[in-house]
Specification:
heterohexamer; A mainly alpha (963); B mainly alpha (112); C mainly alpha (93); D mainly alpha (540); E mainly alpha (120); F alpha+beta (158); A: mainly alpha; two-stranded antiparallel ribbon; two-stranded antiparallel sheet; elongated; C: 93 residues; Helix Hairpins; binds sodium ion
């Protein structure tokens, strides 16, 4: 419920997008956040003594991933942190956010983020945790890019998202591995199977992946660079996400999983190395920042490194210290960010070089900031001091026998010194010194009281915790520690004074050195551009360069290298892979075909195919320059194929092939007119590449040819004992009522195929029609063909001739013959149709014949003449055909049979006798109608282009003539 | 028969593939036609080839010797679909030629 | 006896017709003009039609007749279209 | 007499057929009538498919329908099991919103949009339902023919060029399909998938080898459709230039190839002498596709191309999973299939709306000219779109959802599906077992793919929504944005109801991994008692 | 319907064989002429051998064979003859005309001119 | 009802030749023939005025004989090859025939006969250009065309 609430609030706020007020969304947000705090607080009694509160909704029970919430001490403490700081940030933002912006959006995102964060904290299931994990990445993206007009905000947001989402993906995989090692994704199970996990061969992989997730989120070196860039976000966002909560998710996760993962050498080295280097580098970089928020960001990085280092040590006390420091850091850093925001808000700049002596204008804010900075620097009596002391104490102790362990105390002191230096710099350069010159806002003044209230609150918290740790944070910290460490929770003391010991000495050294550094390098700090020594280690630049190179340059060149946009290579691939697909299985298995036995060789058949092959080669040879010749020869090949079908017992195929051949030839001829003139036999010089291409294609073609020949021989000489054909042969007459088995298969046994096939024809006709409606020929095809121009000119030049005489005379006699053939061909079509069920023929051949009858009339008289006399409405034919065929099938339902069940009987007609009648005939009629419609539509649509072009030409000429 | 037919299929496949890989749209459409001849014959052949045994039933005759009607039915479907797609490809290549002014398969206008 | 006579005659006729087809296809390939190629195609159609009829006589079946009939009646359509294309540069005006 | 509900199985094919044909009777001028008829048919299709899905879950195996009342290996059977029901439902779920999107303007950009659309649905459903290899070819062709028409819908140089490539490639693939099918028939003597699976173990070795060669050739044909590298180069161009609703519905097309591959590999090569045939190719081909798609996504600037390459990413993922032969991962893959198809469908439509703002609809239509037959002008009604103030916000939210879904970020269904696959592959349950090398590469690539998608989409999204200085808000109709939101809502439902969805997917996978169930179901159905009476026929 | 060659008397077989061979021979001669004749206008005469009595012979053979073997008049071959006779001239006329056009356009002196030159 | 009786009869005969001669086929064929004739009527061709149609068989016989004769002649020309020089030539024949159908029949006769080819009809001059493979005498050819065929055709179509 606590988790859901912010999301509900978020949605609610999102619906307020149109309001101009910032009060309403802010109040909703504040109310929600406060409720969250109260509800969480109410859970305290149940978790105080190591208790756990659970709540579960089923989501993916098969994989053991459910909406499984689990609150223990640690989660509770963290949730309180999220909630309280959330309330404060909302309050602060209510004043901070300008009214011009889409404020409801801001609060909506903020609440969504809060929910996601709480989700991470409360997840009792690691997968659920990673879900919320990525949600925080997404919401933070939206929050950082809140001022999306600003390129820096966009880039910063994108970088943050890219880095943290990458980490999130890694984390997911790591958690999946972890879950699989443990046998469950349940957090409790995972935490209790530490031995199995650390002993597993995938432990290291899993650890690295999880650490990647945690480190990216918590801005650990070398993934720290996104955080400073995320400072383009509005300050409340920085205060909330980038100091108090989201960046803590990484260390939270480390702490959460440390019982299961820690304690190994790998853990110590990986986590420790990252932690120490982050600690050191973060503080080092922070000293040289000129931007207030930049300084705070690097400081945050450094403190996160501190927490990570603590967690790397793996000792119980270190873990307690880590948890403690998470809380402490959140309090002082959030207040510092808010103070920086106020400074920015009031003065208009965050550049420390321009700021100076602000204590005069912002006395209260300044003092609050000083206290918070002191806490950051680890000054005694403040909460920062306590956790830092614990850190020093732990650093000194020996945990692992390695150089890193030895170096840690020294590095810790150095980093601490740096942090003193930058804290000093923050305070001194901003609040002290001469009054500022040339600020964008000339008169900075204290903000409204309620805007400052969050800072007041947090700084007081720093003080109270720093002075009375045992009464304030003590019990909560204990509950958290117990829930993480369980039985091994150590005895620790939170008192301010432990006596004079090594950690105190280290603190003193760091304090003094820090002051010395600041005093020594003060002027250098304010002059420097970027960070010395590590200037070129600008993570951001490297990241961007890598990203651009990887995701843009390499990707583009790889895309063009691995892919293509041309057709030829693609077809080459397809043929090549098709060849391999057939070749490899046979080759690898050592397929042996039987001996080639010269089966009964028919001389005429051999002769026919000798011709056929020659024609095929001729076609291939002539297709480039002699299109018409190639078409003629292609027609020859088609004819040979047709003879072959007939020769080899397939009269139906022969008939169909023949008709299709004729129609196809006419079709291609109709198209030929629109292709460019090709000047024959221009032997273009062949480059080596072109030669190579040709050679390669030749080899491929030959290989495919040989392969097909081989396979077809192998399969032809192979007898299959029980094919389904036997059933058809035995039942075509008794069950299907036809003697032509092929036709019975087509209209009855497999009529469904035919239904689909005629649909294809219909679709193609529609497509052709649709495409040709927008057809525009190339400019060089626009003119009438040369022959027509010559003939028209001749008619024009001869005094005794009228325009069009030549063509009229030319067609006079042939067209008479073609007209008289019209009824004859129709009769033939009817004949072919009627006999189909018993003998070669059928709806398809009949339909083609019928359309050839129409075609002949178009040929004889031209489009206008033909359409003046016979108006074919192809769409009607097609639709009727499809509906007839489909309707015949549906008709079977009326008799309780499945779709397309045929029925046939002999009708006893007077005078005539018994006549076979089958519903399959009606189906075939549908086929006939559709074929006529489609074929005519295709032919006519193409033929119409000539007329259209005349019209276009006329229009163009009119246009030219007009001006 | 089988030998001649498979050689023929091989020949037509080779010519068809060769044309299919050429750069001119017209060559491609002719190549596709040749290939579909080859494939149709191939489908036709997989049932085994028999001369003079068309699958037409006659009273009292044995059906055992008749040619396999299934591949024939499949080829019929394939012929129809092949016809349709050839028509379509033709129109598309015309449209492409009209819009790009070139009959290159990629619409390029350079001669090679 | 009649079977032998017929078989021989049909086989020889088929060979002759095949040769005729081969010759026609030579013209189809060499031209020299488009007209020659088209006449070649037409001749190829006619000769193959005759071949089919002899095949029918040889096998004693009438079912091969339809293909021949179709060639006889509409086989000319493709050559007519080709011819018209040559004359007018366009098949259907 | 068979029970009426049995006929429902054939309805997903018949409704679009009759609707598509009937629409031809309505003249082009009565566009709104056409639109209503088409929409009604599609909605009816949706209702039927949901009924079918419910029915398929009732028994252990769905149902088998003998078209033409012929017993199994001889006639054509339609097989409804959970998997095919799922695909049919997916088709309808995508089809209804896409059609309503198209009704806003795209349906008038060319002739016969509605008929072609219906025929496409018919082909898709037929391909999903059929249990016969050659019938599958026929429905593939129906689907492809309609897709040719739809890809060219709206015409214009880009579409025509991409369409030509698409057609040429698919024609070549269709030839391979035919070669494969006929080789299978020639070596086994059957076309029925169940019968084939039953015969396969017992045929002698040399026939089996040839059959495998046939299956491999067939596989190449499917892989062209599925878009496996290096057979996929046509896909980005074709999908990115197609009209938005067309591209949206075409996202299903690549899934058909995958569906068939899943079905056939599990049916034919799950066990017996040919077990595991081709799985290496699927796995490594799938991985290559995944990698190529990822690269393409990164390398693309235009949103349309990003979407198209995402189709490849999704194909690659599914192919690789199929090649891995892991039951649990396969059910994850089914979820992934659902999620990615719906998302990409939404994405393609969204892209058009987003880009409309940038490119003033210039790409919408090529030159309109006077037409063959009746000379009605076909200028789509511009100016109906009102500029909604919240338009950008809504588009932005949709875009973000698509980005989250496509990159597999939590919490939406893209993540759920990916997680199920990863979880399965990394090896749930078997403590101590390590995943295979292929699985590890797969996991890596899937993660990288998600990341690349995220990078590319944020880059593109920022450019589209935030960087436009002018901020020209695209003119968008409510009826255009609602379908997109509907699709996204479906994915959201899928997220919330992930448990039941996964349970369904598990059941679907369980019912296909055991070929025996399928074979028994198909062969167990006897035809109705015949009424044919030819025995009394007079002789010729 | 299947008719066996053994069903017909020998003399009939001889007659049928004659017609078949005569038809085929004419077709072959036509083809040879088509190959060998020097100009196109001459060449188009040759194939008409095949379309006239080439076809005629083989059709007669077919009619005789099937009628005698089947015991009833089967004359559908007549149709083929008629159709071939009617349709072949269409092609030849159109082609010859196209050739004429071409020759005139190329100013080939061997063909008769139209009345008047054509200049494009 | 029957726009072209002769055509209808021809179609019926065609149907019966294609199928078998039964009552059913006569009826069915009749129906098909009538419908096809109507389809023909839709084309609105110039209706030929057939007068003495009974002369058609005579024409048929004459042509058959001529074709046999010319078959032999042309075969000889081809087979003898270079040995016998033939003289091919173009001739122009003026015609009185105007009816398109009659012209069509004439053209079929001329082209169908080996050795002669119908090249070009000029409607202005009403003349036809023929090509003859082996021309012995121009006038003999003109005479053949005009007296043997055209006269008969003029009688049939008047
Ligand atoms: Na300063
Ligand atoms: Na002649």
């Amino acid at each position: 419920m606590v988790v859901i609430l912010p999301f509900v609030g978020s949605l609610l706020t999102a619906f307020l997008l149109r309001t101009n007020s910032r009060l309403l969304p802010a109040s909703i947000a504040g109310f929600v956040a406060a409720t969250v705090v109260l509800m969480t607080a109410a859970l305290y009694p149940s978790v105080a003594n190591g208790g756990v509160v659970r709540f579960e909704i089923e989501w993916l029970p098969q994989l053991g991933v459910n909406l499984n919430l689990r609150v223990d001490g640690f989660a509770w403490l963290f949730a309180m942190l999220v909630g309280i700081i959330g309330v404060l940030v909302v309050l602060y933002a209510r004043y901070y956010m300008s009214e011009e912006g889409p404020v409801p959006r801001f609060f909506s995102f903020l609440l969504a983020f809060m929910g996601s964060m709480l989700g991470i904290v409360f997840s009792g299931n690691v997968i659920l945790l990673s879900v919320f994990w990525e949600l925080t990445s997404l919401t933070s993206f939206l929050l950082i890019s809140y001022w999306n007009q600003n390129p820096a905000a966009r880039d910063g947001a994108r970088m943050a998202l890219t880095v943290t989402a990458t980490g999130g993906f890694c984390l997911l995989v790591g958690l999946v591995i972890l879950g699989n090692i443990a046998g469950s994704y349940d957090l409790d199970v995972i935490l209790s199977s530490a031995e199995a996990i650390t002993a597993h061969p995938l432990y290291l992989t899993c650890l690295i992946l999880i650490l990647l997730g945690a480190f990216t989120k918590s801005a650990q070196f070398p993934f720290h660079f996104w955080l400073p860039n995320a400072m383009a976000a509005p300050t409340p966002v920085s205060a909330y996400l980038h100091s108090a909560t989201m960046v803590k998710a990484g260390v939270f996760l480390l702490a959460r999983l440390s019982p299961a993962l820690s304690g190994t050498y790998e853990w110590f080295m990986l986590v420790g190395l990252a932690g120490v280097s982050t600690l050191l580098l973060g503080s080092y970089f922070a000293m040289f920042q000129q931007d207030l928020k930049g300084l705070l960001a690097f400081s945050t990085i450094s403190h996160l490194g501190l927490i990570t280092t603590l967690l790397s040590l793996g000792s119980p006390v270190a873990t307690v210290a880590a948890i403690f420091h998470m809380v402490n850091h959140a309090t002082f850093k959030a207040s510092l960010f808010m103070a920086a925001g106020i400074i920015d808000h009031e003065t208009g700049t965050r550049d420390m070089r321009r700021l100076s002596g602000l204590l005069r204008y912002l006395p209260i804010t300044g003092r609050l900031a000083m206290v918070a900075s002191a806490a950051m620097a680890g000054v005694p009596l403040l909460n920062g001091f306590l956790s830092k002391e614990m850190f020093f104490a732990e650093a000194v102790e020996t945990h692992a026998n390695s150089w890193l362990d030895t170096a840690t105390p020294y590095l810790a002191v150095i980093a601490s010194a740096f942090s003193v230096a930058y804290s000093l710099r923050f305070i001194h350069s901003v609040f002290f010194g001469p009054p500022p010159m040339g600020l964008p806002n000339q008169a900075p003044q204290e903000p409204p009281h309620w805007m400052r209230f969050p800072i007041d609150f947090l700084v007081i918290a720093c003080l109270v915790v720093g002075i009375f740790p045992n009464f304030t944070i003590g019990p909560f910290l204990h509950a958290a520690a117990v829930s993480v460490l369980g039985q091994s929770t150590p005895q620790y003391s939170l008192s301010v004074w432990h006596g004079f010991n090594v950690p105190l000495l280290m603190s003193l050294v760091a304090m003094t050195t820090g002051c010395a550094i600041y005093v020594g390098f003060r002027s250098y700090f304010s002059r420097c551009e970027g960070t010395p020594v590590f200037r070129h280690l600008a993570g951001q630049r490297i990241f961007e360069r890598v990203l651009v190179t990887l995701s843009w340059r390499w990707a583009r060149s790889l895309e063009s290298r691995l892919g293509t946009r041309s057709l030829q290579p693609q077809l080459r691939w397809i043929t090549f892979l098709g060849f391999l697909a057939a070749f490899l299985p046979l080759y690898l298995a050592g397929f042996q075909s039987r001996m080639l036995s010269p089966s009964d060789l028919d001389a005429a058949f051999l002769g026919i195919w000798t011709i056929g092959c020659c024609l095929a080669i001729g076609t291939a040879y002539l297709a480039k320059y002699h299109r018409l010749a190639a078409l003629v020869m292609l027609g020859g090949v088609g004819l040979i194929v047709c003879i072959t079908f007939l020769w080899l017992s397939a009269p139906d195929l022969a008939l169909t092939q023949l008709l299709v051949e004729i129609v196809t030839t006419v079709l291609i001829l109709l198209g030929l007119r629109w292709l460019p003139k090709r000047v024959g036999d221009l032997k273009d010089e062949m480059t080596f590449r072109a030669r190579f291409r040709r050679f390669r294609d030749f080899v491929l073609a030959a290989a495919c040819g040989v392969g097909m020949a081989f396979i077809s021989y192998a399969v032809m000489t192979m007898t299959v004992p029980d094919t389904i054909a036997n059933f058809f042969l035995n039942n075509a007459y008794t069950q299907g009522g036809g003697r032509n088995v092929v036709n019975v298969i087509l209209v009855d046994f497999r009529g469904f195929d035919t239904l689909g096939e005629i649909t294809v024809l219909g679709i193609v006709a529609l497509t052709v029609y649709a495409l040709l409606r927008r057809f525009r020929p190339a400019p060089d095809s626009l003119a009438a063909p040369e022959q027509q121009q010559v003939q028209a000119l001749f008619d024009e030049q001869q005094p005794d001739r009228d325009a069009g005489d030549t063509v009229r005379d030319y067609l006079l006699v042939p067209s008479v013959i073609m007209q008289w053939l019209f009824p004859v061909v129709i009769t033939l079509a009817v004949y072919i149709f009627i006999r189909g069920h018993d003998l070669p023929g059928g709806g398809f051949s009949a339909g083609l014949t019928m359309s050839i009858a129409f075609l002949l009339q178009y040929l004889a008289g031209g489009t206008r003449w033909a359409e003046d006399r016979i108006r074919v409405l192809p769409l009607r034919w097609m639709a009727s055909g499809l509906i007839t065929a489909g309707g015949t099938g549906i008709g079977a339902w009326l008799f309780g049979y499945p779709f397309l069940t045929s029925h046939s009987r002999y009708l006893d007609l007077p005078l005539i006798g018994k006549v076979p009648a089958a519903t399959a005939m009606i189906f075939d009629l549908g086929v006939f109608l559709l074929v006529v419609g489609s074929t005519v539509l295709i032919l006519v649509a193409l033929a119409h282009q000539s007329i259209r072009i005349n019209r276009i030409r006329a229009m163009d000429e009119a246009k030219e003539g007009a001006p | 028969m089988e030998l001649v037919l498979s050689a023929a299929i091989g020949f037509m496949t080779a010519c068809g593939v060769w044309l299919l890989l050429r750069p001119r749209t017209y060559q491609v459409i002719v190549g596709l036609s040749l290939l579909s001849y080859a494939v149709n014959l191939f489908i036709f052949g997989v049932g085994g080839v028999k001369s003079d045994e068309p699958p037409l039933l006659t009273e009292g005759a044995s059906v055992a010797l008749l040619a396999d009607p299934v591949p024939q039915a499949l080829v019929l479907t394939a012929i129809v679909i092949g016809f349709a797609t050839t028509a379509l490809f033709l129109v598309v290549l015309l449209a492409s030629r009209g819009l790009t002014g070139s009959d290159h398969v990629d619409g390029r206008s350079d001669p090679r | 006896m009649s079977a032998i006579i017929l078989f021989t005659a049909v086989s020889v006729a088929q060979l002759m017709l095949t040769t005729a087809m081969a010759i026609s296809s030579v013209r189809m390939f060499y031209g020299p003009r488009a007209q020659d190629r088209i006449v070649g195609l037409d001749a190829l159609y006619v000769n193959s039609m005759l071949l089919l009829v002899t095949f029918g006589i040889g096998t004693g079946k009438t079912v091969y007749f339809e293909a021949a009939l179709v060639i006889g009646l509409i086989g000319f359509v493709s050559s007519v279209s080709l011819a018209k294309f040559l004359m007018r540069g366009e098949v259907i005006e | 007499m068979i029970a009426w509900p049995q006929h429902l199985i054939v309805l997903p094919i018949l409704i679009p057929l009759i609707a598509g044909a009937g629409l031809l009777f309505i003249p082009d001028r009565q566009r709104s009538v056409k639109a209503m008829v088409s929409l009604a048919a599609t909605i009816a299709l949706g209702a039927v498919s949901l009924l079918l899905m419910a029915a398929s879950g009732e028994s252990r195996f769905g149902a088998v329908y003998l078209v033409g009342n012929w017993a199994a290996p001889f006639g054509i059977v339609l097989v409804l099991d959970r998997l095919s029901a799922l695909m049919v439902v997916l088709t309808a779920l995508l089809a209804v919103p896409v059609l309503s999107f198209a009704l806003a303007r795209w349906h008038s950009a060319g002739a016969h949009f509605h008929s072609l659309y219906q025929f496409l649905l018919m082909g898709l459903n037929g391909a999903f339902l059929t249990g016969d290899l050659f019938n599958l070819f026929v429905f593939f062709e129906v689907m492809l023919a309609a897709s040719y028409g739809l890809i060219l819908h709206g015409s214009g140089p880009l579409r025509v060029k991409a369409g030509m490539h698409y057609i040429a490639i698919n024609l070549a693939a269709a030839l391979l399909f035919l070669i494969g099918v006929s080789l299978i028939y020639g070596t086994t003597g059957t076309l029925n998938m169940a019968d084939l699976a039953e015969r396969l173990p017992t045929i002698e070795p040399d026939r089996r080898l040839l059959m495998e060669a046939g299956a491999a050739v067939l596989g190449v044909a499917f892989l062209v459709k599925a878009g496996m590298w290096p057979l996929c180069f046509w896909l980005p161009s074709a999908y990115s230039v197609a009209a938005a609703p067309v591209a949206a519905i075409l996202t299903l097309m690549s899934k058909v190839g995958i569906y068939i591959i899943i079905r056939l590999t599990l049916l034919l090569f799950a066990e017996g002498p040919s077990a595991g045939f081709g799985s290496g190719v699927l796995l490594y081909g799938g991985l290559a596709t995944l990698a190529f798609g990822t690269i393409g996504v990164l390398a693309s600037q235009a949103l349309g191309r990003i979407g198209a390459y995402s189709v490849l990413v999704s194909s690659g993922t599914l192919l690789a999973i199929t090649g891995l032969h892991d039951e649990a991962a396969t059910s994850g893959a089914l979820l992934y299939l659902l999620s990615s198809t719906l998302t990409l469908g939404a994405f393609f439509m969204l892209v058009e709306l987003v880009e409309r703002g940038q490119d003033a609809g210039a790409s919408v239509l090529a030159v309109t000219m006077e037409l063959y037959g009746d000379a009605d002008n076909e200028v789509p009604e511009e100016g109906q779109g009102t500029t909604m103030p919240a338009t950008l916000a809504v588009l932005g939210i949709c875009f973000a959802s698509c980005a989250i879904l496509l990159s597999g970020l939590p919490p939406l269904s893209g993540f759920v599906a990916k997680f199920v696959m990863l979880s399965a592959l990394i090896g749930t349950g078997s403590v101590g077992s390590s995943p295979t090398g292929g699985a590890l590469i797969f996991v890596t690539l899937v993660i990288l793919g998600g990341l690349a998608t995220l990078i590319a989409l944020t880059r593109a999204g920022i450019r589209a929504f935030w960087s436009s200085i002018e901020g020209t808000v695209p003119r968008v109709l409510v009826m255009e944005i609602v379908p997109i939101m509907l699709l996204l809502t479906i994915t959201a439902t899928l997220t919330v109801k992930a448990g039941p969805a996964l349970a369904y997917a598990d059941a679907a996978v369980r019912s296909i991994v055991d070929p025996g169930i399928y074979i028994k179901a198909v062969q167990g159905v006897a035809p109705q008692k015949s009424r044919r009476d030819h025995t009394a026929a007079p002789g010729e | 319907m299947i008719y066996s060659a053994a069903d017909i008397p020998v003399w009939m077989a001889v007659v049928v064989a004659f017609f078949v061979l005569a038809g085929a021979a004419l077709a072959l001669i036509g083809a040879i002429g088509f190959l060998r004749l020097p100009t196109f206008y001459e060449r188009i005469h040759a194939p008409t051998l095949a379309t006239s009595w080439g076809t005629g012979g083989i059709m007669c053979a077919s009619i005789l064979f099937f009628s005698v073997a089947g015991g009833r008049l089967v004359a559908h071959e007549v149709l083929i003859g008629v159709f071939i006779t009617v349709t072949t001239p269409v092609t030849f006329m159109l082609l010859a005309r196209a050739a004429l056009h071409r020759d005139r356009f190329e100013n080939n002196p061997k063909v008769p001119r139209r009345t008047g030159p054509v200049k494009l | 009802m029957l726009p072209y009786p002769l055509l209808t009869v021809f179609l019926l005969v065609m149907w019966l030749l294609l199928n078998r001669f039964t009552l059913g086929h006569v009826l069915l064929g009749g129906m098909v023939a009538v419908c096809s004739s109507w389809a023909m009527a839709a084309l609105r061709p110039d209706k030929p005025k057939l007068r003495r149609w009974y002369l058609l068989p005579k024409l048929f016989g004459v042509v058959m004989l001529d074709i046999i004769r010319s078959n032999i002649a042309v075969s000889r020309v081809i087979l003898q090859g270079r040995a016998k020089e033939h003289r091919s030539a173009f001739i122009n024949v003026p015609l009185e025939l105007r009816d398109p159908t009659a012209l069509a029949i004439l053209s079929i006769i001329v082209t169908g006969t080996p050795g002669s080819a119908w090249l070009e009809y000029d409607s202005r001059n009403s003349s036809v250009l023929l090509h003859v493979l082996d021309l012995v005498d121009d006038d003999e050819w003109r005479d053949l065309l005009k007296n043997r065929y055209e006269k008969l055709l003029l009688e049939i179509f008047s």
